[in-house]
Amino acid sequence: MMRQWKPNVTVAAIAERDGQFLMVEEQTDEGLRFNQPAGHLEPGESLLEAAVREALEETGHRFVPDSLVGIYQWPRPQGDITYLRFAFGGVVASLDTDHVLDEGIVRALWLSRDELRDCADRHRSPLVMQCVEDWCAGKRHDLSLIRHYAA
């Protein structure tokens, strides 16, 4: 029986503070990689709720989205998965210092745009740098573009 194809819907939190971006270093099948706080949309969850949840789980920071930076489609070179990423811009309101980071997350850290460019070979995907470049180019879309209808 053929499996029905569908993209993997993910969210990412783009938070900048004093010229540095909130990132995570995480263990992957390809080794340690850098990514924005990001992850998969869960059943019953809105895209915004997912972005807030993922940022907290992966960094301990409470993320407050205020814009949509972009929507990105990336088919992995291996050809087995296509990601549909919704990247949200926002601010971190606070840090929960007692929070235990998600399994696989080695650490949360702040990196500048130049530092991110210098380690591009260790990014989880090309979407990591593209989201930062779009943020720096001023791409911000009103959150009213996203409509969530609860079941």
Automatic annotation (TrEMBL):
Which residues constitute the signal peptide according to the record?
Answer: none
Q: Which Pfam families match?
A: NUDIX (PF00293)
Identify the EC number(s): 3.6.1.-
Required cofactor(s): Mg(2+)
Q: Does the keyword Hydrolase apply?
A: yes
* One function term, GO molecular function aspect: ribonucleoside triphosphate phosphatase activity
Nudix hydrolase domain: residues covered: 4-133
The record's listing under InterPro entries reads: NUDIX_hydrolase-like_dom_sf, NUDIX_hydrolase_CS, NUDIX_hydrolase_dom, NudJ
Keyword check for Isomerase? no
Keyword annotations for this protein, in alphabetical order, are: Hydrolase, Magnesium
What the record says about family reads:
Belongs to the Nudix hydrolase family. NudJ subfamily.
Q: Which proteins does it associate with, and in what oligomeric form? A: Monomer.
Q: What is this protein called?
A: Phosphatase NudJ
Source organism of the structure: Azoarcus taiwanensis
Q: Corresponding gene?
A: nudJ
